[in-house]
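User: Could you check the structure of this?
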Amino acid sequence: MVIKKQKKNKYLVVGLCLSTLLLLEGCANTNGIIISKSDPYEEVNRSVFKFNKSLDDHVGKPVSSAYDYITPDFVQTGIGNFFSNLKDINVVLNDLMQGKFIQAGQDTGRFLLNTTAGLVGIFDVASMVGLNKHDEDFAQTLGVWGVPKGPYLVLPVIGPATSRGIPGMVFDAAANPATYVPFPIRSLELLNMRTQRGGTFKVIDEGALDPYLFTRESFLQSRKYLVTDGEVELTNDVDLDPSIDDANFDK
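Assistant: Sure, the predicted structure tokens are below.
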């Protein structure tokens, strides 16, 4: 079954439904074992996922909770806007490398407007006048160029990635001015980001039958969405034992 999706904000729900269906299908047909071509290192990935989860539970979550308690919402929004504005430099570079020249002009205008009228990006003035933010990075650029995404990986501390995404992270970090600011300031960005994503982590913990599977499928579908600019085909992308009758997936 193929479903066309256009709205990014639906992916959390879609990912949850998809991962649940995959888990149930796997349990019914493979005694609970799901083998995916996109995740050949699942055993190692699950161990790293467990480590990251434990680290977040014992460090990330309590620290971000304290930060959220003492920091007003408008301050958190301003901090998020500031660092997001710096990342718009990456967006413009990747716009150009993907041949999106009109979008590059729009994103350049967005960056200049927010940097000036928005007081170095603290206020998102550009969105108020219709220059909405785009999400482009070098991993997407590699995907547009035809580079395969490669196997799914879970990196210590960093989290979900693909082999294509690793050089993408390096390029984006090198192009992002925030990389070169003192660590205490950069750590504020990470703390603010963790606080803003607290709701997502709660949904994963409380709503997913298998948090690892939920995270993997949501991440891969989200990345595919970004590379294809919203034209995504959601399919049951699992590779089961060849003895399993493919007809089971047509029901």
